[in-house]
Amino acid sequence: KAGVTQTPRYLIKTRGQQVTLSCSPISGHRSVSWYQQTPGQGLQFLFEYFSETQRNKGNFPGRFSGRQFSNSRSEMNVSTLELGDSALYLCASSPGQGASYEQYFGPGTRLTVT
Amino acid sequence: SQQGEEDPQALSIQEGENATMNCSYKTSINNLQWYRQNSGRGLVHLILIRSNEREKHSGRLRVTLDTSKKSSSLLITASRAADTASYFCATPTSGTYKYIFGTGTRLKVLA
Predict the structure, then answer these.
(1) How far apart are CA B109 and CA B76, in angstroms?
(2) For B93, which of A33, B55, B70, B78 is 20 to 30 Å away at the CA?
(3) Is the pLDDT of residue B2 over 70?
(4) B24-34 pLDDT, tens per residue?
(5) Alpha carbon distance, N-terminus to C-terminus of chain B
(6) Chain B residues whose C-beta sits inside 8 Å of any chain A C-beta
(7) Do B45 and A103 touch (CB under 8 A)?
(8) Contact A47, A57 (CB under 8 A)
């Protein structure tokens, strides 16, 4: 099976702009989670979707949003970008909902905000 | 502090030596997972150990879990240069689908 894919891999945006990142999970996986990784804060959970429903959300401002489509593909959107949003954004898919399944990560999208 | 915290933060060893890293967590869990990340790339799942398991092996990896101490350890035996990476433990928060990752241990294996 193909792994988790994320597009784009690299992105440079200007402060105040918005950005949309895409994640295609492993075929058959219905759970998709998003994480932000920065040198200062480490890996932080953004949100998790299962069957097009957001099941959980991390402690991020409302500028961070996401959605999941019927084919389990997911997008996350960040509006009004700030310099501090520069990070590696990782998507992970899982065969089931809940905390008993391992997660399979994509290569990430590296976002730089200038 | 975070649910999962790894110790040490960084570790440098010679090829062929064993590497041990530890993870502590705060709340009760039903499983704990270890992941590896190479130089800013995506994470790779290594092992999942359930709360009713005390030890688990996978190749050169050995994971132990002590729920009474709320701690886990990852042992990599006969390390190789290719094992150079950051290693994270992850625990699910109780009653949610949210995983909390530790701060990671940066392992450097010198050839």
Answers:
(1) 11
(2) B55
(3) no
(4) 998 888 889 99
(5) 35
(6) 2, 30-31, 33, 35, 40-45, 48, 50, 88, 90, 92-93, 96-104
(7) yes
(8) yes
